[in-house]
Design goal:
The protein is 46% helix and 14% strand. By secondary structure, the chain is an alpha+beta fold. A hairpin with a 6-residue loop joins strand 2 and strand 3. The N and C termini lie far apart (31 Å).
Length: 159
């Protein structure tokens, strides 16, 4: 699949940061929270929705958007990645938000991934992805610019 990386305008980046900050506050987290606690809180929030431990929102898009912005923003902060847009197979109708490493070999599509978890009852692996990225020897290697979806290579083997 051909993936084109596009630069996001500042107003979109500002909206992402604002959403991440608001979501952190909603989850009872703050700037002093450990990064691992933030990723665990994202996974727990998704699991809580899936298990019916909280009232389901009218639309999963809002939940995946707020948690996805928080997840992506902390990947950016922890690993010096950057936000970008991605267009699949030159189809301008298939633009999504992504975070990618410096050479564009790896990407995470946080909103799309979390929406998929919510709508398909898939257990989230944001904390596992964080642990993988934190271990440099564990990071998969792909061609520069390929924007390979890291989450396709992160498999949860225990509940």
């Amino acid at each position: 699949m051909l993936v084109q990386r596009i630069t996001l305008p500042e107003h979109i980046l500002s909206g992402i940061r604002s959403s991440a900050k608001e979501t952190m506050s909603h989850l009872g987290l703050n700037g002093g929270s450990l990064q691992s606690d933030i990723f665990c809180a994202i996974d727990k929030s998704i699991l809580d929705f899936q298990q019916g431990n909280v009232e389901h929102p009218a639309d999963f898009y809002s939940v995946s958007q707020s948690l996805g912005c928080l997840w992506g923003e902390h990947i950016v902060r922890c690993f010096d990645w950057s936000w970008c847009g991605a267009v699949f197979n030159n189809n301008q109708d298939s633009k999504v938000l992504a975070v990618s490493n410096l050479d564009g070999s790896l990407a995470i599509y946080p909103l799309m991934y979390l929406f998929g978890c919510l709508t398909n009852d898939v257990k989230p692996s944001t904390a596992l992805a964080f642990a993988l990225l934190a271990e440099p020897l564990g990071q998969p290697r792909f061609p520069a610019g390929s924007m390979t979806n890291l989450m396709e290579h992160v498999n949860r083997i225990v509940p």
